[in-house]
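Case study 2.
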Amino acid sequence: MGAFENQARDELIDALAFFGLDRMDSVTYLTLLDYGPSTMSQLASKLEVDRGKIYKKKKKLVNLGIVKLNNNKVTTCEALDPETAFMILIEKKKTDV
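Prediction:
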């Protein structure tokens, strides 16, 4: 990833903080955008964190409505596209004020 991409990613993470996402929430969401639907094990491996931590983050992101679960033989989670996710977060922010 180039310096511009890193800066843009950091700015996006900062923007997501406005909506109540901590850094790990944001990194989890962005990783799902980058890699597509993933199991908790795959996501934990990609982020190099404990799987238990990923389950907590997944739960928060699903509750916010920006990640959905796909229940096939193996449950995967998938990030909603950024436009839809931001619309959900904006509406949630409006109702929380």
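The longest strand covers residues 67-71.
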